[in-house]
């Protein structure tokens, strides 16, 4: 699909210094539409959906939130720490509502791999299929999410 | 091919010329001149137009809380603009509820002063000043919390209420190209008007916390403004339940100093949550306050003590410890400071114990 004028406006809001200091695009030179389509294809290749990925991120976040800012072990072998700092962030996509500046640090105790995502990541993946641009501080590679967080393909009925 | 390149080059030159022309025209022709800002229907300022309302008020020594330095990315600088602001901008709408939009609340950093304005701000903001201060001490309270002591230079004194916060300015350095501001509760006694203490927890890659933890040195000069906030001691004799974690210690400590100085007879229990022994700090001063205050008890709780800690105090999450200690909270008041997660969990426990929401006061880090 061709990048629309609306996509341009959203992409401008993702640049450094607009919503966050580093922006949401990193060193990615692609258009927003190309980024979205590439990640959509990758998620399909993995046999997953944005909703399933976001649900797993949210489940881990909710379980980790029980630690009230300290690391806790959840779902048998995931150490999760949920922390937040003062402030709220608007989503670059046009709608109302704000995300807390909340960070979720997950360590898979079996593989010893770890990753960090934000409340904004959960929202943008779930609502917009956006995983941020390559090189962005909070870029989430769908394949890495699937591997570290053990997100499996849904079982066919 | 050459003709095409020449055509492209000519077009670029024309474009650049037009842009320069527009910029020059904006500077010379579009003269917003002097504007009048009327505040709360009383105070009137005559200012040069053209800049944001936030920056213009700052030049007039009126400080509206803002954490991002005016980029429209924190949503804190809300003021009511009754007249002269023009239409709401798309950069403002995400931060404003429909009720706020109806009430003409705007982001001061996004509103340009182009004509006379009528605005309304809380009266306490008239008390906010900008201060220059010198760092006189930096102490590691834990592996990730630093105590910063600042001696005020100009003006040399600050008046604040226990529980209030200031905004510390971070100058441009490796992590930021422009000054940014972050809010920190004051930990010291309000009676000590010439210096303030802050307790700042390190956040990896955080602009301000990295500056404080890795760059700030004793002897450095810093800029801050304040005081802000309504969190603080109430005029009541009800029992106090204070609950905090991490750098949430700061405003509670200031409140306790005030209570000790005024010999407050209020019963007060202070639950402080941490993970392990290495995350606890200021134990001695808290034990000292137990002796000074007539009815005060400090209850540190560790959620995951190391075996080496040989911890014999309270164990479990701070919410669990509060639930164990407090049977009926219906007549008490609560003072909470910490992460939104901790505060939300504490509020639920206190509600379960019968405390009405109107008696729960908190300084949420959001």
Q: C-alpha Rg of chain B, in Å?
A: 25 Å
Q: Calculate the terminal CA-CA distance of chain B, rounded to whole Å.
A: 59 Å
Domains of chain A, number: 1
| Share in β-strands of chain A | 15-25%
Helix vs. strand class of chain A = alpha+beta
User: What share of the residues of chain B does DSSP label as strand, in percent?
Assistant: 25-35%
Characterize the largest beta sheet of chain B: strand count, sense, and whether it forms a barrel: 6 strands, antiparallel
Q: Average pLDDT of chain A, to the nearest integer?
A: 91
| Whole-number count of domains of chain B | 3
Estimate the global geometry of chain A from the Cα principal axes. Answer: globular
Dominant shape of chain B: globular
List SSEs of chain A in N-to-C order.
Answer: HHHEEEEHH
Known CATH architecture of the largest domain in chain B: 3-Layer(aba) Sandwich
Low-confidence stretches of chain B: none
What does this structure look like?
The complex is a heterodimer of chains A (157) and B (366). Chain A is of the alpha+beta class and 157 residues long. Chain A has one domain. Chain A is 35% helix and 21% strand. Chain A has a four-stranded antiparallel beta sheet. In chain A, a hairpin with a 3-residue loop joins strand 1 and strand 2. Chain B has 366 residues and is of the alpha/beta class. Chain B folds into three domains: 91 residues, Ubiquitin-like (UB roll) (Roll); 101 residues, Translation factors (Elongation Factor Tu (Ef-tu), domain 3), CATH 2.40.30; 125 residues, Nucleotide-binding domain of ferredoxin-NADP reductase (FNR) module (Rossmann fold, 3-Layer(aba) Sandwich). In chain B, strands 9-8-11-6-7-10 form a six-stranded antiparallel beta sheet. Chain B has a six-stranded parallel beta sheet with strand order 15-14-13-12-16-17, sandwiched between helices. A five-stranded mixed beta sheet of chain B has the order 2-1-5-3-4. In chain B, strand 6 and strand 7 form a beta hairpin. The longest helix of chain B is centred in the N-terminal third of the chain and has 27 residues. The mean pLDDT of chain B is 90.
């Amino acid at each position: 699909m061709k990048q629309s004028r609306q996509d341009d406006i959203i992409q401008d809001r993702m640049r450094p210094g607009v919503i966050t200091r580093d922006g949401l695009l990193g060193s990615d030179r692609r258009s927003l539409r190309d980024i979205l389509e590439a990640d959509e294809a990758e998620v399909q290749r993995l046999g997953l959906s944005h909703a399933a990925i976001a649900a797993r991120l949210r489940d881990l976040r909710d379980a980790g939130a029980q630690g009230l800012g300290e690391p806790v072990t959840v779902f048998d072998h995931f150490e999760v720490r949920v922390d937040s700092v003062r402030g709220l962030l608007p989503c670059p996509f046009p709608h109302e509502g704000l995300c807390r500046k909340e960070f979720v640090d997950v360590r898979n105790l079996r593989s010893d791999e770890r990753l960090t995502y934000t409340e904004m990541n959960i929202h943008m993946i779930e609502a917009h299929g956006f995983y941020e641009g390559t090189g962005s501080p909070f870029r989430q590679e769908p394949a890495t999410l699937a591997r570290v967080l053990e997100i499996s393909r849904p079982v066919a009925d | 091919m050459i003709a095409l390149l020449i055509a492209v080059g000519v077009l670029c030159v024309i474009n650049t010329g037009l842009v320069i022309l527009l910029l020059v025209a904006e500077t010379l022709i579009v003269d917003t001149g002097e504007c009048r800002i009327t505040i709360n229907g009383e105070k009137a300022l005559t200012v040069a137009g053209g800049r944001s309302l936030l920056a213009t008020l700052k030049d007039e020594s009126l400080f509206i809380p803002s954490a991002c330095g005016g980029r429209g990315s924190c949503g804190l600088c809300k003021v009511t603009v009754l007249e002269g602001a023009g239409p709401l901008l798309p950069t403002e709408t995400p931060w404003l509820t429909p009720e706020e939009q109806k009430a003409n609340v705007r982001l001061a950093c996004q509103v340009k002063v182009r004509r006379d304005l009528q605005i309304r701000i809380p009266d306490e903001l008239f008390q906010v000043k900008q201060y220059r201060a010198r760092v006189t001490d930096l102490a590691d309270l834990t592996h990730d919390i630093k105590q910063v002591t600042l001696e005020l230079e100009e003006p040399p004194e600050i008046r604040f209420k226990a529980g209030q916060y200031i905004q510390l300015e971070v100058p441009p350095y490796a992590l930021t190209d422009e000054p940014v501001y972050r809010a920190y509760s004051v930990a010291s006694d309000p009676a000590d008007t010439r210096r303030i203490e802050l307790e700042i927890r390190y956040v990896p890659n955080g602009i301000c916390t990295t500056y404080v933890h890795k760059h700030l040195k004793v002897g450095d000069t810093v800029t801050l403004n304040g005081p802000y906030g309504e969190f603080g001691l109430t005029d009541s004799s009800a029992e106090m339940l204070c609950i905090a974690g991490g750098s949430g210690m700061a405003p509670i400590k200031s409140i306790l100093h005030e209570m000790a100085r005024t010999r407050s007879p209020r019963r007060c229990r202070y639950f402080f949550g941490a993970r392990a022994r290495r995350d606890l700090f200021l134990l001695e001063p808290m034990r000292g306050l137990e002796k000074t205050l007539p009815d005060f008890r400090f209850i540190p709780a560790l959620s995951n003590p190391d075996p080496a800690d040989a911890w014999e105090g309270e164990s479990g999450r701070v919410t669990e410890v509060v639930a164990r200690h407090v049977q009926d909270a219906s007549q008490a008041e609560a003072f909470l400071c910490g992460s939104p997660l901790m505060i939300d969990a504490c509020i639920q426990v206190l509600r379960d114990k019968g405390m009405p929401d109107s008696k729960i006061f908190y300084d949420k880090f959001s």
